[in-house]
Amino acid sequence: MTEIFAKTEVDRRTLLRRAAAVGLLATPAVGLLSACVGGGDDEPTTQASGAKSADNPLGIDSKAGVEIVIFNGGLGTAYATDVDTPLFNKKWADAKITFSQTEEVSTVIQPRINAGNPPDMINNSGSKLMDFGAIVKAGQAADLTDLFAAPSWDVPGKTVAETLVPGAVEQGTYDGKPFAMNYSYTVFGLWYNAKLFTSKGWTIPTTWADFTALCDKIKAAGITPFGYAGANASYYMVRALLTSAAKIGTEQALKDIDNLKPGAWTADPIKQAAQAWGEIGNKYINKTFLGLRHTEVQLQQDQDKVAFYPCGSWLENEQAKDTPAGFEYAVCAFPSVTAADKLPATAINAAAGEIYFAAAKGKNPQGGKEYLRAMLSKEAALGFTKLTKSLTVVAGASDGQTISPGLTSANDVLTKAGQDVFVGYLFDTWYKKLDDESRGAVNDLMFKGGDAQKFCDRMEKASQAVAKDSSITKFTRS
Amino acid sequence: MRHGKYPFIIGFLVVPVALYATFVVAAYLQTFQLSLTSWSGLGKIDYIGFDNFVKLWHDETFWKSIKHNLFLLILLPIITIVIALVFAFLLNVGGGHRGGQSRGVWGSKIYRIIFFFPQLLALAIVAVIFGRVFGPDKSGMLNGLFPASWKPWLFLADERYAMACILIVLIWQAVGFYVVLFSAGMGSISDDIYEAAALDGATRVTLFFRITVPLLWSTIQVAWVYLGIAAFDAFALVNIMSVDRGGPNGATSVLSLMIYRNAFDFSQAGYACALGVVLFFLTLTFAALTLRVTRRDSVEA
Amino acid sequence: MVATTPGAPPVRRRRAPRDEGTVTVGRSRTGTVVANVIGVIFSVLMLFPVYWVLNTAFKPADEVLALTPTFWPKHPTFANFTSAFNAPLFLQDMLNGLIVTLLAVAGALVVGFLAALAIARFNFYGRKAIILVVLGVQLVPFLALLIPLFLMLQTASLTNSLIGVSITYLVLILPYTVWTLRGFISGIPRELDEAALIDGCTRAQVFWRIILPLTGPGLVATSVYGFIQAWNEFIIINTLNSPAKQNLMAWLLQNQTTRGTAWGPLMAGAIITSIPVVVFFLIIQRNIATGLTAGAVKG
Fold it and tell me: Where is this region: Disordered (chain C) (predicted)?
């Protein structure tokens, strides 16, 4: 069924999880049934191309049309029609862009891929996106190596890859080759109302002692210091806890978890993080939140009944309609748990998401890539951010711009973090059952006594059960 | 009369039989086939014998789900049927008979329509409404009605009560249909019988237990089967209403939800199909048992 | 409300016709009062959520979100309805739902009537097996079939198509249709067929001219039931189709999930969504009872 508040979340993990969720629908392969993603044998009939030159690094046919399909979800499609396409046509006036949008990519695009007639550039996203791993395996996605090596559209002297945030290309890399462009960029942290904090004179904590001291003050002011929605957003809390763990013991702690390493969940960083957060749960959370949904707790935050809420940078845009005038979203990094944390207090968790790819078997794959190159220009990235209130992987594209307070704040946090940005964990998308367990376990930890040992043991047990289950496909990362 | 029978039979049945053969029989065969594989839903299919069934034997969630299905299976039919019977009786016989009309209580037609209303509301809507009814803080309807000094009940977020909340909603939705069903059944009980009983000085309660219930037995039996099936399913409601889809901590997990989640969330289509096979046999066993057990007591049989 | 079912099948078994004459069975004033009090309390319980939907639908946004909800909209508004109607895909999905539902119901009536005829009027090899399968389908939760179903329809290129969903719904409501109509047809005395045959009717004419009209109320009852089932279904259509090819129920669910706190338009959408079913029900609520009992009769 539909994810709870699906379409505005664009972080990688959600995307991957949805990929897993709909993967079944994307590629059936039972005996007599043949409707899987087409094989890699049939060569495309004729593909448009032109001579490569400094002005045309990808060698596109300047007169060949490009067909693009954009997912119509939380980000809308205006960025494509009003920003990217005009930008593309300014350079290639004769290349006609055929635009269409869809709410469910797999149901619309999959048959066309199977029929050997895919659009040239596809935004694979939403609750019914196609399993991208399968697309790559079937040879249906174009290799983007030349795109990333090409000169940037509007940053002189740099290749496309060089204009992106660290890790952006890697996140779209499968078996050593880039096939996907993950365009949007999500920053995770603690969200609060900047106006409320300013008016009360509260300052953002960087150490755990500061954090709890502030929570005491907030509580004294009659406001719930910290909260998250237990009913359907407990994975935000899992992210908070594991982000703290990564700060204590570096991202390695999360990699061990992802790799299902025995003892990963009972390791010190996890335990310390669980202990610290369990304490917050004991003292500062409103117990009724266990039964509330994301939007309901957000409503309370909008009314200044909750101070801190752990979430990703889509939050501001998602709540835009319901945010009252006296409310100004701002984000801060999770405070350091111990003085011995291996990462600084400014370290954050941020990830790229929202896949765009050029179809390998389309009529004009180079045109599709050129469209992607246009999207990766600073100009297009800024336009995207302005329209969607979502950052992009184009580094610094929105620097110095005032688009919305929350976005500015997220950008600041990102700048302050410098190189201390980590991708986080992937186990929740790889092993959905483990993800489920983590939600239950973190709810118990935060709402029912804060027993860190119990949390660690429960997760360790679940993790090892997954490791031993041969029917679950395993992934590893390094 | 025998002449030319088969052209009609074949002509009449070819479409439905073909539909069933494809959509039900073949589909089920495929479920059986896939239950013996470790298929993720993607890529190649490996046959693994009965490993999936061994795995579910050791799966805690599976047993929890079975427990919850049984909980619903026992309570949903009993409570629903009792309430529906009592109301149908009140509506039809409760007010006595006058002027050639089997007169229910005043306004019985209106009641009948009102009771049927929940049946008309889509589950999506029902789930939204009851989400508000069971709201875990003071803004929830029930918590709002409780005395201010009470700590708010968490309802769906409380492992102890979550399943009961689901049960209440299921009953709420089902009851009207069965009131109408039983009313219709009662309407077909001849008034002579009531008259004769009344001459013997029977009270309303006696009428209910000695006449209405026995004569409606076959209808009750059907209701029981239908409600049992609803108890086995319950997927849609649990999926939308429960905390964390089947939570908290699996407190509302039911078999059908497990099937759906394994198939579509966990990429374990083979395992999901194994669960489907279990559900298939459980449902059939239940139906067969119900029909057999209740048939013996039936006055009509 | 009509007291008797128009065109009800002629006398079958000892069913129904209300006896003439005054009967005074188990009648006491206090009893009636108690019964009514219980009835009213129960009605309130049944209706309260429905009332809440109405209440919310007519409230402006700020009243909906107020933490202490009021029992009546202070400033009633139709804004939620307009916003639902103007919401993307609302009308499209409404149309889809109608098409799918009508196709499924019409198909089920035709197929079901013929099947019921065959089962009710003929004795033949495999009759029992067919009855068993028909019943069996009702018993098994459809969810267990969702995976193979999807694969099959995909092979036939019927995913993301209204036809694919219509067929699925047809299969879904067919058992009930066959079963109920079978009850109705069994209720028509065979003597009538035979008399008509003697009068020179062909067998086809008997079915067309005699049995079909007499099954009228049954057809109505089953079509209502089928309509409700198909109109309210959302799991299958949500799994098979994209939003542009879904129905209002799936639309509601998706808007519930994506719009978050926009309860007002959601409830307004819910009301609009429910109207066809409610109207249908009110028109023929008498027949539905008849249909239900016919289906429930053993044999």
Answer: 1-23
